[in-house]
Design goal:
Elements: E1 2-3, E2 10-11, E3 16-18, E4 22-24, H1 27-40, E5 46-48, E6 51-55, E7 75-79, E8 84-87, E9 90-95, E10 108-113
Antiparallel strand pairs: 1-2, 3-4, 5-6, 6-9, 7-8, 7-10
């Protein structure tokens, strides 16, 4: 028997899995798991003006820049803790929902984009 990781309801049939094998019984519960994952791993994300981004790691001389985040455009991110990152592989993840704005506050800003 599978049980929803969010609400505890039994998942009948196949249901679906989400993040690290945690189960969700509905789109609403999957949405909550999605944001729980971001909250639990906040250090891995840049939150800029209420938008969550993830750096896939800068790729030197990519053969197919169109396969990279933002098609390989270079972004300079300055985290509020002083860390600077220059990447050509930045991915948009989500706008922070109102219910999570207190825990997912901005932690960085763009310095420049090319």
């Amino acid at each position: 028997m599978n049980v929803c990781s969010v609400c505890g309801n039994e998942i009948r049939g196949h249901g679906f899995r989400y993040y690290g094998g945690r189960c969700a019984c509905s789109d609403s519960c999957a949405h909550k798991l999605f944001f729980q994952e971001i909250i639990e791993n906040k250090k891995d994300y840049a939150i800029i003006k209420g938008t969550v981004y993830k750096d896939g790691g800068n790729v030197e001389s990519p053969r197919h820049p169109e396969w990279l985040g933002f098609e390989g455009r270079v972004h300079h991110i300055r985290y509020f803790n002083g860390k600077d990152v220059i990447t050509n592989n930045l991915f948009y993840i989500a706008k922070v929902d109102d219910e999570y704005k207190d825990v997912l506050k901005d932690n960085a800003e763009f310095q420049w984009e090319v």
